[in-house]
Structures are given as C-alpha cells and as structure tokens.
Amino acid sequence: MVAPGLVPWEIKLNEGKRVTESHTPRVMSSNANIDWNEFWPQLDFEAAAGRLKGVVECTPVISLPSPREGVEVFGKMENRQVGRAFKARGAWNQLVQLSDAEKARGVVTASSGNHGMAVAWAAKKLGVACTICMPENSYASKIEACREAGAEVVLRATRHEAESVCAERKAAGALLIHPYNAERTIEGAGTVGLEISQQVDPMDLVILPVGGGGLAAGSSLALRRAWGSRVTIFGVEPEGAAGMSMALEAGESVVLDPVTSAIQGLTSPYAGERNWRICQKTLNGVGTLEDEAILESMARLQALGETVEPAGAAAYAAILQGDALLTQEKESVGDRPLRVLVVVSGGNGPVASE
To answer: What b/e sequence results for 232-262 when a residue is b if at least 16 CB atoms lie within 10 Å of its CB, and e otherwise?
Structure first.
C-alpha cells in the first residue's frame, strides 16, 4: 500500500496503467511521522458535525457491485443527502456561524449547481438574502431549485463570467460563501470522512471525487486523523477539468481555460489554494477519467435504483476503470478481500428535457 506523500501525478485510470509506472512519485518525508491532529488544527470536524446534527442526514454506507473477485466495494451515499448532495454540509457550516452583521450583508456565491442550491437552502432557513451566480449551461433543474429557495440567480455565459459577477457582488458588500476554498466549507465537507470513519472499520482504499477540492481535502484529512496511513486515499477528476492534478504538479492553483469536461460539479475553474495544500499531504494520488467512463458509471448506479448525477458517479467509475489500481492494492492485503469505499457525492442530474 502506498504511504501518504507518495503521489503519482497525472494518472489516467482509464488507460489501465499501474499507478507507479511512467511517473516518479514525489516523496514528502514529513508525512511519515505527521500528527494529523496537528495538521490544519483549525479544522474541527467534530465541531462541524455538532452544528450539522439534526439539520443534514448521516448518509448510509452500502455495498455496491464489485468489478472483480476479491474486492469488496462500499458506497457513502451522499446522493441521499439533504438537497441530494454533500454540499449541504459546507453551506450550513458556513452560514450558521455568521454574525448578525454578516447576515445583514447578504451572501453570494458562484456555482454550477449543487453548492448554489445548498447555499440557497441554508440562507432560506436562516433568513439571509442570497445571490447565486451560475453559468447558463447549468442544469435547468438546479437553476430552478435555487430560485424556488428564494435566491436571486444571475446567469452568465460561462463559469468564468459567473465568477466575475460574484466578485463584483462581493466587492459591493455581499459576503462570499466559497464553494471549496474556505475553511468552514472544507470543515463541513470533511464530516463525510468523519462519518465514514464512525460507520465502518478501516478501509484499504478510499476514492473521492475532486472538483475544487473541498470534499477531497476535508474528507481525506478526517480519514487520516481516524485511520492514519493504513488507508490509501485517491482523488479522481475529469480529464477535461484536471485542476487538482495541475495544482499539485505546479505547486500552485492553475486556472483552467478552457474547461473541456461536461461533468458539472467537477468542473471548477481551479483547485482551491487551501484544498490542494491539504490534498498534497493527505492524498496518495489523483487520477483522471474521460467523461464517458463517468457517465457509464452513473448508468450502472442508476440501474441499481440510485438517483445519481454524473459528478456523483466519478469515484465509482475509478473502481470500474482502475483494474491496475485494484491489482496493486490487492497485492498489499494478501488472501483477504480488498475493502474499497467510494463517495457517491450527489444526485441532482439533468431532467429528461435538458
């Protein structure tokens, strides 16, 4: 099993490469003896879980079909969450901590959908004025859900243009609720990892979907605090929106222009600064998948009766496509089954008319 800090960059899982071939792992020796509770200690996942209790769901972990013998696959089903996505966690953890003065300013965010819906939901519950800046190609169902929650929705041609409008609203006085590059967002998203550690015995391999990196950073850190180096944790992102891979390679956030993936929810224009710095320590690696593989995974999950959007199926796609990864990890556990967990992050896909 690969130790934390041995990070092979730019792995295309769908090409069937062994994860250590053709790439020299970047070794971070400080990880060997790291005290995970002292790494980003301001992120208190237990405190966030207390704020979320009774507001969001503790979603189940269920068995999923395995692509091969000797591998047990489990899914953390955040598609069954309030608002059908893990984003409710970060949005509530952000807004519930606002002061009265901050609430009076109103909040604004840029989102292709799930984060915007979550912020609109939380803002409505707390009586806060809310503006969601969205690209015009966002799923119509998500745009309507934001409006139904009482948010002002501003549509622009591209995600970059929506981000620009968001920045203008922030400059005019609204409080930005960032979808991933904010400690309270990461803290809320990290309760997914905290719950996993409380629901199941330690896994051998965990796969997390990666957009801007909020879920990947928060949940991987929460899992490291619970399970240490015993678990291999990988992120997976679309090949056409590989912001985390590029940030880890460059050592800084890289703006993607253009974004060529159509997997909404995993097409953030860049990986957040906080997010990639955490993932640099907590992830064993990040792989990329073509959109078609993710859509095939979504179809398989939907055939099981799950309501899943494309982004929500990415981690399971990595298992379906990553035979070499499974082979490598299976070698480390001997005769017993390899235990794998994937996070199914959301279920707000397009309706039939979109």
So the answer is: bbbbbbbbbbbbbbbbbeeeebbebeebebe
Domains, the chain: 11-85+184-344 (3.40.50.1100), 87-181 (3.40.50.1100)
Integer Cα distance of 61 and 341 in angstroms:
9
Say what the alpha-carbon torsion angle 193, 30, 243, 90 is, to the nearest 10 degrees.
30
CA 183 to the chain's CA centroid: 14
Structure-token pair, residue 173: 């006085």
- Rounded CA gap, 320 and 67, in Å? 6
Segment 209-236, tens digit of pLDDT: 999 999 999 999 999 999 999 899 999 9
CB atoms near residue 18 (< 10 Å): 14
Q: Is residue 32's pLDDT more than 70?
A: no
**25: exposed, middle or buried (Cβ count in 10 Å: 0-12, 13-18, 19+):** middle
